[in-house]
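Researcher: Here's the sequence for the chain we discussed earlier.
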Amino acid sequence: MTKPIISIIVPVYNAQNYIKKCLDSILNQDINDFEIIVINDDSYDTTSEILKTYAKNEKIVLINNVDNIGVGETRNKGVLFARGKYIGFVDNDDWIEKNYFSSMVEKMEEENSDICVSLRIENHKGIFSKEHLLSPCNLKEIVFIQRTAPWAKVIRKDFLFKNNIKFDKTRGEDIYPAFLSSYFAKKISYVDNTKYHCNIRYGSISRRKISYDDYSEIRLYKKILDFLRYKEDENFWLPLVKERSLISLDFLYKNADKNARYELLKEYENVFNIIPSDIMKEYNLWKVKRFFNNLQTFLNSTCKHQPTK
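Model: Thanks. This is the structure I predict for it:
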């Protein structure tokens, strides 16, 4: 059997209201040489019945987890089963335009790159939000900070195995692999003509109230700092690690109650050796800076698309 050029991995859990639109959009890709690895992570709604129907399609490989192992481990499992030269991901409640993967695969073949990142992601209302309008000034920074999510990029499979890049079991499962991908990549490409529709909904794992277990996301930065210690390029990466950690802190802090916020700041203190009052100073300055950076990027992008006189 001929190996596909790309394996598209879809972790699925209780997605009965979204999975049809998701899989239909992938099956409609304008690249013919692909496989879809769908992993049902022990769903208990009608998702399993829906997937049985889709499994009749020869492009779909359906894997059923006996127990719920979480999205990180499910993605790792999908990579092990993948036969493609490249790996792509789609979340089970999102959908993609027909050229999403073909444009990135074409660019990777042309430039022999390890990673290709999409600069534009469309939200669930069909609008490009300002933080999703990027300029490819530093692609390593984009891969690690703005495009941490695995669905925002395509990665060469042998690059993942060579560098032992795997998703974590905890919340923020994509942060450490995004760092390693950015760190080890010798060539990163980008495209800006694709559309990934991100369905942001309350109640998803990234939109619920914060509990103690969610602090594990902050601990992942300790893992990154330990990796960087005494390396020649440590000084280059430390500001990027701080920037990405503030993105995590921003989301966690906004979704935590008063007691959880205190514990969250203590966790951040333990990782970065900075007292809570100074953390809040940095955090507030970062929010102002981020607002103006996003506004400038948005205005620049809007100007570029104005009709010429």
